[in-house]
Each structure stands twice: as C-alpha cells, then as structure tokens.
C-alpha cells in the first residue's frame, strides 16, 4: 500500500468533510432567518387582502427580552407648580385646576394636562419650536427628556393642531409605555399626556419572538383598506386588572398605519394588545 | 359530586354507622347508590310530597342506606355525573337520598327517597336488576365497620324524641361518648410568601409551583397589595401572602348568552381538575361541592377540602377560617370558590396549602350534648341567635396564622345559618 498517497487522500477527505460540516453549521445558525421570498410572499398576501404596506418588513425572529422597571412615582408638586404655578385649586387628590388649566393624575406614573384657554404660548407650531418648548418644560417638571425620542409629529386630520409624540427609549429599544404626547393649538399648548416608569434592566428569555410577517399575514389581513406606514418592535406591558402594576414587559410588534392608528401585538403570543 | 356523609342503618331505633368518607366502602356504596339513582330518575316519582322534617327524619332512620350532600345538587349536574341520557325531569335537584333495596314495605321493589330543597320524592323501582347494595353487601360493610372501629353510638335525632333545635335527620352520638382516632395535620403554605421579588429566577420558581411549568406567555408582576402576579393578555394569577391564589379572566367576555348551570359546572370542574393535575399540593385532597349560587349570568360553586387520615380512617374535612383577601372584608368560607359562565371560568380563588397527616393516631373521646352545651356557653352570638343548628362535624380548623403549622388537631364544629363555631377536641 502507498502510505503517502493514502495519507494525502485522508487529509483531503477530512478537509472536504470539515467544509461540509462548516456549511451545515452555517445553515443551522442562519436557518431561522427570514428569507427574501417569505417577505415578498407576505407583501403579496397583504396586497391580495387590500392591505398596503409602505415600509420594510422587519426580519427579527430572535430571543424575547423582558424589561424590568423600577417602581416610579412622579413628583406631583414639581408638576403642579411647573404647570399651574401658584394659586391653583385642589379638586381632589388627583385633580388640580387653575382657570382653564387642569391636571389629572391617573396613577403614580401618569398625568394629563389640558388647557382650553391657551395660557402657555408657543410661538410657532413647527417641530423645532415644540422641541425647544418641551426641553424647557421638561426641566421644570422633572421629566427625563433624554430617555425619550420623537416618535411622530403629525397634524390632526383637519390639518390643524399638530401633535408631537415622544416614546421612551432604553438601550436602543423603544419603550412604548413611556411616552409624552404634546398637542399644540394655534394660540399655545393644548394638552400634555405623560407616562413614565424608570427602566431598570433588560433580561433575555429562553423563547423566540414570532416574526412580524406571521402577524401581518394572520392578523392584519383582517383590516382591509389600511395602509401600513411603519412596523417596529419595542417593549409594551400587559395591563392585567386594576390592582396590578406593570413592572415587567415583553417585546411587542407595533404596526402603524398612515392614519396614525397603532396596533400592538405581543411578540411571543401574537395576541393583539390594548 | 360526592356525598359528604354515608350512613348505614339497621332501622329505626337500631344501630347506625357512618362510613368513613374516602374509604373503599364509601366508594362501593356511592357507586351502588348511583345505579339506583340512574334507575329511579328514568321515571316519574311514585309519590311527591312537600318536605316535612319529621317525615324525612323517619326515612333517614328507617332505610339501610342514607346519603347526604353538602348542598342542593342541580338535576342537570346529577344527570351529567350519573350519565343519564333520558330522564323525566320531576326533580329539581337533590341534597339527600335514602335507599332501601328490596323494600318489604313496597313488595320487595327497590325504594329510593330523594329530597331536594322543597319536596320528598319516592321512587319504587322494579326495573333495576343489579346486586349493588343488596343485603349481602350491607352485612359485609356493616360487619367490617362495626368491628373495625371503636363504639360510636350514633342515633338519628328523631329517635331521641328531643325537641331540640337539631335537624330531625341529624346523625350523632346523642346518648353517650364517642371514641375516635385522629392524626395531626401538617400544613405548609404555597411557595415563598415573602411577596414580590426582583429576581426572574424566583418568579420562575413560583410559576413552576403554581402552573406546573414555566409559561412564557405569563409575565411576572406584583400588585398594589404586595401579591405576586402572573398575567397575560386575558388572565391574571395572583398569589396572596396568606397562601390564597386567585385566577381572574380579564379578557373580553364576548357575546353573553344565558349561562346554563351544567356548562358552568363543567367549566369549573375542568379548571379544578387541571389545577389538581399540575399542583403538587392537592394529591391527597378530596373535594366536596358545598354551595352553588347563581350570579349575574354566571354560577358560583364552592368546594371544601377533605384530607385522607390514612389507614382506613377516611377523610377528615377542613374548615378554613378568616382567609381574607386584601381588597375584601369578607372571609373565604370555602377552600375553592369558582365562578364560571357557559364559556369559561371567570374567577377562581383557592387556599393553596400542602397538607399532610403525620399518621400517628391519637384517641379522642367526645360527647355530643356536652360539646353543644359548651359551644352555646362559650359563644354568646350562638345562644342569642336562636337559630337551629344546621350541621356539625369533626374538622381540622385552619386559620391564616397556622398555614405553616405542624400540629393541627381535630375540632368539633357546629354550623348554623350565621356561621361556624369550633372547639378543639380533648385528646388522650
């Protein structure tokens, strides 16, 4: 037997085997990735069902994560003084008024301000003007504006009264349940809705999310005639009953339409959320 | 649907024996009784008469087999449990049954007496050809129990001739001491009762104990009362610090069609079976339906726990007292309270305890009249209420401070329409 030739053959055989195994390993690792064909087919199914999508379909199908919050209680005094100043009336523990202005605290981490008299002047309804105004206001009210980013700036259907929506941001994830909604009238600030809980940490869960194309095909085809303008993922909590806190949240898919309507789907169960 | 008491009688003014719940004979007799009930309910009753306490007392004392339930069991539930497809619906339900197979007074036909909340129904059945509960079986069970147990001079209240406030069909050792053996009960509360935690691993451990698996669709949380919460989009589990667990359906009820009691009962039983299957806490617990109430388009069923004392001693029921929820002033008066519609269980609250008996038997001697007198003298509200005693029993009585206790001894408990009064038995 020619041992030298046998050795060479064996070396080549092992090299080929290793290459084959490497390819298999690569395919296994990437096996879960959503293919281009799947995305194209999803778009076709949506079109066939009269659902128009104008944005890319995210391909994420990795692990679910869980966001843990710190129990947060807003500084009521700072908010009341910052918005109403002195001489306000306390209607109840959660309602404060001054003239046409009103603040309602709905839970420890939420308040709503409204004014029918435009006491707070904003000289332009432009996005930049609103941002400058909000920056100043946030300082007065103790709002951590650096933990939010502008999510949308839109006019109402009648073309007036723009609304700026900021969503929470934590470690590059959108935190849907932390938000600031500012509505501006021609004469000034009309309303603010603010909800904030301090994010504490993110942990991974041993479960994969449902890729959004599945939700688009199975759920959104039930809404013919809509135009989907954006699809993204972030943290959103399940409400539970009235006595339950929401200190843990999982990932959810958000599907936004051109009309500004938002659909949230739990990313592990696929269930539509409120 | 299990009888809370099975009594074997030699006839009026003769011996009566209570068959230990959960014993082999208990199930033999209950299975036999089901055969007779099936045969009876196929036809109209031979006689229907308004309920009369004395009359029923005599029936209870006269007939060889007597079965008591803790509450009225609706006829639809009875038919479902007994698998009766075709029946003549003359009876609304049943809470007590007496059976006299081969009754000489009725030409050696089988006589079955059924009592619901209003009437006494008499069925004379000639079509049942089986041998369940026949004379031979009666003698076998009677002799085995008479010899196996210490003397219990049980009488039916009507036989005593006393004009007391006791139900006429109550069976108790009215005339002399009763000597019985009971073991101590150990109770361990559900999981860690330290309240919410910031560790997901700890939440997983609690969830594993609660649901029997780690369910990724349930997110951990806490509530304003410091209870541990697991929630998903349409339901919430809540574990309170006193070892009470609550399940609530929080989803949309949808179109509300009128709830049928059988559908609701099936949903409730299905939920409890699942609960029992996945719980490490309920292996040795028997459940007795103790109350049925109609809600607004739902039914509320209550179940009581009994625990097997072991070695043929049968089940001893548990009385749970003062288990309250933080948002309610009212105590849970049953181990499981479950509300269901035709479609689903909408709420369930249960006291989740790991219960074990230590199997070291101790002898207890008690005297019914003495204990009743003592209960009246110790409880002002009992003597002031002037309400008839509804029932009595030997129970393990558990209150929240004792959820982690190792020495719970049996107590004598009296029930009237306002509540229960318990006194520990004196052991030797």
UniProtKB/TrEMBL annotation, chain A:
Classification via InterPro entries: YycI-like (IPR018604)
Domain Regulatory protein YycH-like: start-end pairs: 33-268
GO cellular component entries: membrane
One protein family per Pfam: YycI
UniProt superkingdom: Bacteria
Protein name, entry field: YycH protein
Native organism taxonomy: Bacteria, Bacillati, Bacillota, Clostridia, Eubacteriales
From TrEMBL, chain B:
Superkingdom of source: Bacteria
Designated name of the protein: Uncharacterized protein
Organism: Ruminiclostridium cellobioparum subsp. termitidis CT1112
């Amino acid at each position: 037997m020619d041992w030298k030739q046998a050795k060479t053959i064996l070396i080549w055989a092992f090299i080929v085997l290793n290459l084959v195994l490497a390819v298999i390993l690569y395919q296994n690792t990437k096996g879960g990735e959503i293919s281009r064909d799947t995305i194209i087919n999803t778009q076709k199914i949506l079109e066939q069902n009269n659902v128009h999508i104008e944005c890319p379909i995210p391909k994420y199908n990795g692990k679910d994560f869980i966001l843990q919050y710190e129990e947060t209680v807003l500084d009521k005094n700072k908010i009341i003084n910052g918005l109403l100043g002195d001489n306000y009336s306390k209607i109840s523990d959660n309602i404060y008024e001054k003239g046409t202005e009103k603040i309602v605290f709905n839970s420890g981490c939420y308040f709503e301000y409204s004014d029918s008299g435009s006491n707070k002047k904003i000289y332009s309804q432009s996005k930049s003007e609103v941002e400058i105004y909000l920056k100043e206001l946030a300082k007065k009210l103790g709002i951590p504006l650096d933990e939010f980013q502008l999510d949308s700036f839109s006019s109402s259907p009648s073309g007036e009264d723009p609304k700026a929506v900021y969503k929470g941001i934590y470690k590059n994830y959108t935190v849907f349940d932390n938000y600031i909604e500012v509505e501006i009238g021609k004469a000034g600030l009309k309303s603010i809705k603010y909800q904030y809980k301090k994010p504490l940490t993110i942990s991974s869960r041993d479960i994969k999310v449902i890729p959004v194309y599945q939700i688009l095909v199975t759920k959104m085809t039930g809404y013919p005639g809509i135009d989907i303008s954006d699809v993204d993922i972030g943290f959103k909590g399940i409400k539970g009953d009235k006595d339950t806190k929401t200190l843990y949240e999982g990932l959810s898919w958000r599907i936004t339409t051109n009309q500004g309507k938002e659909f949230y789907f739990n990313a592990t169960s696929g269930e539509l959320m409120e | 649907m299990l009888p809370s008491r099975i009594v074997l009688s030699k006839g009026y003014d003769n011996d009566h024996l209570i068959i230990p719940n959960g014993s082999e004979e208990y199930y033999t007799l209950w299975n036999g009784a089901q055969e007779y009930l099936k045969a009876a309910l196929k036809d109209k009753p031979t006689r229907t008469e308004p309920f009369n306490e004395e009359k029923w007392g005599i029936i209870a004392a006269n007939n060889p087999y007597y079965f008591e339930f803790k509450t009225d069991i609706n006829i639809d539930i009875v038919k479902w449990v007994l698998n009766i497809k075709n029946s003549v619906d003359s009876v609304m339900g049943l809470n007590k049954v007496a059976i006299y197979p081969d009754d000489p007074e009725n030409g050696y036909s089988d006589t079955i007496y059924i009592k619901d909340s209003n009437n006494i129904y008499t069925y004379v059945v000639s079509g049942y050809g089986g041998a369940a509960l026949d004379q031979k079986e009666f003698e076998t069970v009677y002799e085995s129990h008479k010899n196996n147990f210490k003397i219990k001079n049980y009488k039916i209240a009507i036989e005593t001739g006393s004009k007391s406030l006791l139900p006429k069909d109550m069976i108790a050792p009215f005339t002399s001491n009763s000597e019985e053996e009971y073991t101590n009960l150990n109770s361990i509360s559900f999981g860690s009762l330290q309240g919410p935690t910031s560790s997901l691993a700890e939440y997983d451990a609690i969830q594993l104990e609660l649901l029997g698996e780690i369910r990724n669709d349930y997110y951990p949380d806490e509530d304003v009362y410091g209870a541990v919460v697991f929630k998903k989009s349409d339901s919430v589990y809540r574990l309170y610090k006193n070892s009470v667990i609550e399940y609530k359906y929080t989803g949309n009820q949808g179109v509300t069609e009128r709830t049928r009691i059988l559908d609701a009962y099936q949903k409730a039983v299905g939920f409890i079976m699942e609960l029992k299957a996945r719980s490490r806490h309920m292996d040795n617990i028997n459940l007795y339906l103790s109350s049925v109430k109609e809600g607004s388009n739902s039914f509320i069923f209550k179940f009581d726990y009994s625990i097997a004392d072991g070695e043929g001693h049968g089940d001893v029921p548990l009385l749970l007292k003062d288990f309250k929820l933080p948002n309610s002033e009212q105590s849970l008066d049953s181990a499981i309270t479950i509300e269901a519609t035709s479609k689903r269980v909408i709420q369930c609250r249960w006291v989740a305890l790991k219960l074990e008996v230590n199997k070291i038997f101790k002898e207890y001697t008690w005297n019914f009249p003495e204990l009743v007198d003592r209960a009246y003298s110790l409880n002002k509200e009992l003597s002031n209420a002037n309400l008839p005693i509804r029932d009595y029993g030997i129970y393990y009585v558990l209150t929240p401070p004792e959820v982690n206790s190792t020495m719970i001894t049996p107590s004598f408990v009296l029930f009237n329409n306002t509540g229960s009064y318990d006194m520990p038995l004196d052991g030797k």
